[in-house]
Design goal:
Its EC number is 1.1.1.169. It contains 13 helices and twelve strands. It is an alpha/beta fold and 323 residues long. The longest helix has 21 residues. Bound molecules: NADPH dihydro-nicotinamide-adenine-dinucleotide phosphate and ketopantoate (KPL).
């Protein structure tokens, strides 16, 4: 590790999820965050996290930079051990942006993002660096800039990418998150965990984003809704199964039941894709829906409902991009 026993971490994507991990990691590592629209606010006032788990009004002032070139110049001769990517998973952009802060053969890149098929562009860009793939359960929103609301779950599931790569960097990062007080599980193969989470994201995220509705509002909208959601999730399950990540119908029903159980509590969730649509931001349509559809079609899996969601969400994303 770089300085004594404290590893050196750069966060790229200081939004809802990233800031909670920045706060946690700052307890066990030397941290710096790349900030964009929140740069001036955070540089002046720091972040405030209101978390159902860690406490309300948590104030901290991290080291912030405007981009990875500035991060690299501040790092001087001591390279980053980790670049943690918590921006939205929009393909074709981030590897170039983080490159100045990535030391070949040294810096591990940790992808804390939703979706499937998101890792390969990092392996292509950084073929001598460890790539760590992380599935994240952490409902969080940044509103206004610098103020993070975090709900009742915090869990990372981590593994190497590709699965055959050395496990040492992913295991070390898992230990770092634990040492910082977070919840982290190492998995020999992280891909089945990605698909299990995708059951929720590839179904609820586009449906809620396209309808400007919380998940429970969809379920309550008409008698047909529950069966349609189950059918979409079963298509995702079939694609996962065809790609070597077996899931049972019971696991699918469990994922659907989580939203059903929140109806009497009046506790609907606004998935991140809905929040992005409301804020006029580009959506993670390829990472969360498009990649799965393509992987399904390549294996001859029937996924008409998911494909329809992809086409609609893609058109919405392009429309947002034109505004
Ligand atoms: N939010 C949630 O509840 C959950 C999210 N996830 C997943 O976690 C990942 C992160 O999501 P979330 O935290 O919601 O994302 P946010 O949109 O809250 O944060 C992303 C951050 O990345 C920053 N960013 C993007 N591009 C750049 C750039 N070029 N330079 C500097 N900063 C940049 C954004 O800055 P700017 O503000 O300037 O755009 C923003 O602060 C996603 O893959 C999401 O699907 C998973 C579980 C739950
Ligand atoms: C499951 C959920 C809704 C929150 O953890 C999510 O992953 C998202 O908002 O994208």
């Amino acid at each position: 590790m770089s300085s004594g026993t404290r590893p050196k971490v750069l966060l790229f994507g200081a939004g809802g999820v990233g800031t909670v991990y920045l706060w946690l990691l700052s307890k066990a590592a030397d941290t710096t965050a790349v900030c964009r629209s929140n740069f001036y606010v955070v540089k002046r006032d720091g972040f405030i996290i209101n978390s159902s788990i860690f406490g309300q009004g948590l104030h901290f002032k991290p080291e912030v930079v405007r981009d990875c070139e500035e991060a690299a110049s501040k790092a001087a001769s001591v390279p980053y051990d980790y670049v943690v990517v918590c921006s939205k998973a929009i393909p074709g952009i981030v590897p170039n942006l983080i490159a100045p802060a990535v030391t070949p053969g040294k810096t591990a890149i940790v992808l804390v993002q939703n979706g499937v098929g998101i890792e390969q562009e990092y392996t292509d860009a950084f073929d001598s660096n460890p790539i760590i793939s992380a599935v994240v359960y952490l409902p969080a929103t940044q509103r206004p800039a610098g103020v993070i609301a975090h709900g009742e779950v915090e869990k990372l599931q981590l593994g190497s990418y590709p699965t055959s790569a050395s496990q040492i960097p992913a295991r070390a990062f898992t230990e770092l998150i634990r040492a910082a007080g977070g919840t982290a599980e190492f998995h020999d193969d992280i891909q089945p965990r990605r698909w299990f989470k995708l059951l929720i994201n590839a179904s609820w995220n586009p449906i809620c984003g396209l309808t400007l509705s919380k998940d429970t509002d969809i379920l309550e909208s008409c008698d047909e809704a529950g069966a349609v959601l189950l059918a979409v999730m079963m298509e995702i399950r079939d694609i996962a199964n065809a790609n070597g990540c077996a899931m049972t119908k019971e696991e699918v029903e469990y994922q659907l039941s989580r939203a059903q159980a929140r109806i009497p509590l009046n506790a609907g969730i606004e998935p991140s894709m809905l929040q992005d649509v409301q804020a006029g931001r580009r959506i993670e349509v390829e990472a969360i829906v498009g990649n799965a559809v393509r992987m399904g079609k390549a294996k001859g899996v029937q996924c008409d409902r998911l494909e329809m969601l992809y086409v609609l969400a893609k058109a919405l994303d392009l429309q947002i991009g034109r505004r």
